[in-house]
Each structure stands twice: as structure tokens, then as C-alpha cells.
From TrEMBL:
InterPro entries: PORR_domain, PORR_fam
Protein name listed in UniProt: PORR domain-containing protein
Signal peptide span: none
Any Pfam family: PORR
Matches recorded under PANTHER family: PROTEIN WHAT'S THIS FACTOR 1 HOMOLOG, CHLOROPLASTIC, UBIQUITIN CARBOXYL-TERMINAL HYDROLASE FAMILY PROTEIN
Domain PORR span(s) in chain numbering: 12-160
GO molecular function, one term: RNA binding
Length: 174
């Protein structure tokens, strides 16, 4: 009989494992949604998604992933018949529009929360990197710098604390 540290293993919880797999898929689909929203037409070539596939920690073909979610994505030809493209289904586009409307409607409340945090900060300023840490707890969207700060110049100002050295940005204090 071997004396020493006993090894044991617990059984995996099937519900937890399924939830983790589902969450991983949701994260990838959310990243694909963000990719499509960068395009005014809300369509993109499948080859573009394929080039980002490894970044999304996925293997295989992008078209196969898109076909797994027919309620979210439509696959079609670009019109010339040469390159397959993808876009949102009507239902997914409506959900995206509703999400955008909800975020836009909550902008005044987000700006108020951000202004209150800045009033508590020393010198009434924060580094953007510190603000990024607070983004989640404050309920700020991913694009809060563009959405909130640039539209409310009466409340907020972005400032570069680093001086220019010989006309170049050095990123260092003197």
C-alpha cells in the first residue's frame, strides 16, 4: 500500500459542463456580431471571418460555424457569385437594433454614473486604463469612449498626459 497523498477525482457536473460550452459559443457569436457591426452594410465576406477564426479559438471552417446558427446568420453570394458572404438574419438584425436602442436610451444614466466617479477621483481625472477596469461595474458599453466622451464634451475631456518629444509621441515622462 502506497502512503502519501491520496488522489481523488470528482465527477463532472453535466449541467455545469453544458453551461460552460454554451457560454463559450455565446462569446464567439458575440464577437462575430461585433465584427459584422463594424460594416455599414452589416455583411462581410466569409473569408474575413475565416481569417479571424484562430483568434476566436475555433478550428474548422467559418462557413460551418455560421451554418450551425441559422437563426443568427444568413449565408449568401456577394452578387457576383464569386465570394460567399454572411450577415444577420432579420430576427438577429431586429435584436441588434433593439440592443442599440436600449444602450442609446441609457446613455444619460451612464454619463451620470461616470461623472459621479470622476467627482470622487483625485483631481477629477482618471487614466483610461483605470476607467476600463470600472467599465463593467459602471455598466458602460464597449465603445464608451466614443459613445459617451466624444458626445459630451461639456462634461468629459480626454487628455494626453505624455509630452511630445521632438514631434514624436514617446510614451514616457521627461
Amino acid at each position: 500500500m502506497h502512503r502519501g497523498m491520496a488522489r481523488w477525482s470528482s465527477l463532472k457536473d453535466p449541467a455545469l459542463e453544458a453551461a460552460l460550452r454554451h457560454n463559450c459559443r455565446w462569446i464567439v457569436n458575440n464577437q462575430i456580431k461585433r465584427l459584422l457591426l463594424r460594416f455599414p452594410s452589416r455583411t462581410a465576406p466569409v473569408r474575413l471571418l475565416q481569417s479571424c477564426f484562430k483568434t476566436l479559438n475555433l478550428l474548422g471552417r467559418a462557413a460551418n460555424w455560421l451554418r450551425k446558427y441559422p437563426s443568427c446568420y444568413d449565408l449568401f453570394d456577394d452578387g457576383g457569385g464569386e465570394e460567399p458572404c454572411f450577415g444577420f438574419t432579420k430576427r438577429m438584425a431586429a435584436l441588434g437594433d433593439a440592443e442599440e436602442a436600449a444602450v442609446t436610451a441609457s446613455e444619460p444614466a451612464m454619463a451620470d454614473r461616470l461623472a459621479r466617479v470622476l467627482m470622487l477621483a483625485h483631481g477629477r481625472h482618471l487614466q483610461v486604463s483605470k476607467l476600463a477596469v470600472l467599465r463593467g461595474p459602471l455598466g458602460l458599453p464597449d465603445d464608451y469612449l466614443l459613445r459617451l466622451l466624444s458626445n459630451r464634451t461639456d462634461l468629459f475631456r480626454l487628455a494626453n498626459p505624455y509630452p511630445l518629444h521632438n514631434g514624436k509621441f514617446t510614451g514616457r515622462h521627461p
